[in-house]
Design brief:
Blueprint lengths: L8 E2 H7 L5 H9 L3 E3 L2 E2 L6 E2 L6 E3 L2 E3 L7 E6 L29 E2 L7 E8 L2 H8 L7 E8 L4 H9 L2 E2 L2 E2 L4 E5 L1 H4 L13 E8 L6 H8 L4 E9 L2 E2 L8 E3 L2 H19 L1
Parallel strand pairs: 9-15
Antiparallel strand pairs: 1-4, 2-3, 2-5, 5-6, 7-9, 7-17, 8-9, 10-14, 10-15, 11-12, 13-14, 15-16
Helix pairs in contact: 1-2, 3-7
The structure holds uracil (URA).
C-alpha cells in the first residue's frame, strides 16, 4: 500500500519504523557501518531512502516496512516502572517484554508503578504519539479499590467532571462494581475488604495520577488500581506479568484509529 507520508524518509526513521531499533539505536547502527542502501554502506545520518524502491539491509539482512510494526500488550504487575530504563536501577517493564525479538519496542503512555494492568507496546512511534494525543480521546477503563463506599452523589461529580488542582477533569463514565462482579478482578485478590468499594471508571484523558486524583477529589483514596481496557484493546485472559501480540483485528483497530487521527491532522 502506498502511503505518501513515508516517501522518502530519513534512513534512521525508516529503520526505527521497520522495528530494527529505536531512532537512536538506528543511528548507532548506521555510524557503525552496519547499514547498506542498495548495497552501499551509508553512515551519513541525514541520508534519505525511498521505502518503495530502495533496498535497505542491516548486517546483510534486508529489512522493510512491510515487515510491519510490533504491537504487544502486557498485563503489568505492581512494582514496575512503565519506562524502558531507570537511572536509579528500579525494576522497569523492559524486563517483561521481548525487546531482543522486537527492537525499538516502547510503552504507549504510562501506568504508575503500583498500578497493574494493560500497557500497550509498539515499535510504531507515530501511532503511539497519535494514540496519546489528547485530541484522540482514546478511552481507557480502570477498576479501583477505594477506601469507603462512594455515594451516587459523589459518583455524579465524576460524571459531570470533577475539579482537580490542574483543571477540571472531563466527564467520566463511572459505576460501582458489586462484590460478586469484582471477584475476578485483580484489585481484590482476597475479597472485598469491609468499608471499601470497587469503582469502574472510563476516561479519555491521561493526566498524571488522574484516576487516583479524581477519586481523592470525591473523598476516596485508591488502594489498588488496575487498567483493563485501552481504546479497542482489552486484556482478555492474559495473566499478570505476561504479554501477547495483538491479534490481526486488534492491529487493524489500532491502525484505523491512528489513521483517522492522521487524516484529521492533515485537514
Ligand atoms: N491514573 C492513575 O492515577 N494512575 C495510573 O497509573 C493510571 C491512571
Amino acid at each position: 500500500m502506498t502511503d505518501e507520508r513515508i516517501v522518502p524518509m530519513r534512513l534512521q526513521r525508516f529503520l526505527a519504523r521497520a522495528g530494527v531499533a529505536s531512532r537512536r539505536g538506528s543511528e548507532n547502527l548506521m555510524t557503525a557501518g552496519r547499514v547498506t542502501v542498495n548495497g552501499e554502506v551509508v553512515t551519513e545520518l541525514g541520508s534519505k531512502v525511498d521505502p518503495l524502491t530502495d533496498t535497505v539491509a542491516v548486517d546483510g539482512r534486508v529489512v522493510g516496512l512491510s515487515e510491519g510494526f510490533a504491537y504487544l500488550v502486557l498485563n503489568k504487575p505492581t512494582g514496575y516502572l512503565s519506562t524502558m530504563k531507570d537511572p536509579q536501577g528500579r525494576p522497569c517493564v523492559r524486563r517483561l517484554v521481548p525487546t531482543s525479538r522486537y527492537p525499538g519496542l516502547f510503552p504507549v503512555g504510562r501506568l504508575d508503578a503500583d498500578t497493574t494492568g494493560l500497557l500497550l507496546f509498539t515499535t510504531n512511534g507515530d501511532a503511539a504519539q497519535r494514540m496519546l494525543h489528547p485530541s484522540m480521546h482514546v478511552w481507557k477503563h480502570y477498576v479501583a479499590l477505594v477506601r469507603g463506599v462512594p455515594t451516587e452523589q459523589q459518583l455524579d461529580q465524576l460524571r459531570h467532571g470533577v475539579k482537580l488542582d490542574d483543571g477540571r477533569a472531563q466527564p467520566a463514565e463511572v459505576e460501582l462494581i458489586g462484590a460478586d462482579d469484582a471477584r475476578s478482578l485483580p484489585v481484590i485478590p482476597e475479597g472485598l475488604p469491609r468499608y471499601h468499594a470497587v469503582v469502574g471508571l472510563r476516561i479519555h484523558e491521561g493526566k498524571k495520577h488522574q484516576v487516583k486524583r479524581m477519586l481523592k477529589a470525591i473523598g476516596h483514596d485508591v488502594v489498588r488500581l488496575h487498567r483493563d481496557e485501552f481504546g479497542p484493546i482489552g486484556l482478555g485472559e492474559l495473566a499478570m506479568g505476561c504479554w501477547r501480540e495483538l491479534s490481526p483485528s486488534e492491529r487493524d483497530a489500532i491502525e484505523m484509529l491512528t489513521k483517522t487521527a492522521a487524516h484529521a491532522e492533515r485537514r
